[in-house]
Amino acid sequence: xxxxxxxxxxxxxxxxxxxxxxxxxxxxxxxxxxxxxxxxxxxxxxxxxxxxxxxxxxxxxxxxxxxxxxxxxxxxxxxxxxxxxxxxxxxxxxxxxxxxxxxxxxxxxxxxxxxxxxxxxxxxxxxxxxxxxxxxxxxxxxxxxxxxxxxxxxxxxxxxxxxxxxxxxxxxxxxxxxxxxxxxxxxxxxxxxxxxxxxxxxxxxxxxxxxxxxxxxxxxxxxxxxxxxxxxxxxxxxxxxxxxxxxxxxxxxxxxxxxxxxxxxxxxxxxxxxx
Length: 275
Known about the structure:
Blueprint: E1 5-11, H1 15-26, E2 34-40, H2 46-49, E3 57-62, H3 67-77, E4 82-85, E5 91-92, H4 96-104, E6 109-122, E7 125-134, E8 155-157, H5 160-164, H6 175-184, E9 189-200, H7 214-227, H8 237-241, H9 244-247, E10 254-255, H10 265-270
Parallel strand pairs: 1-2, 1-4, 2-3, 6-9, 9-10
Antiparallel strand pairs: 4-8, 5-9, 6-7, 6-8
């Protein structure tokens, strides 16, 4: 029997990137069963989701309580026995979910390699300007010093939450690292060596991975205490990638993306298209 796959997408004031993500989901060779869009107090998204009627999209409107709480709400409301996580500004290549579901036959928690993509915005359309392969061997012990887990596109059995609980808002920026470490302690983890996730990253600091400050140190300290990681320092993401212990984990990966932007129906309609 084909598994029921629920995609969980928290969103906040990013209708154009959200539309691109929905466009990428509509092109999947393995169609998800439902898409949970959790609008965390942002602008309405009904006119975006209305253009993708081939996807069973459910919108949950919430007060602005943060991305972690939004994800928890989406997972709790999901009807599927399999969950796929996505950030609203990331994209999935057409065969992503098909590859993930094939891997799920032999594991419980699957994640894929990614390309980190920088964009410029031209007339509300994101245009790629730079790309960088983010592919690292899975090493659980090494994951305790630097996380190479990209949550967007990761797939797992919803029953995992019965064992380890919900995403933890108390670690805030580090919710995904915390979730990975908890999951890996109880289930089989597999990395898919294909860069089927396009992970949006801004060099100007829009992405939380660029933020360095007292709050971020506070949340990292909480994560370290929770998992016994020692006293890990807050470091710049790009500098971390060049550190020897991280660089030697780099792995070969299948690069698939042709480098072209994904044009959504929402953008085409707003700019006078025929959708």
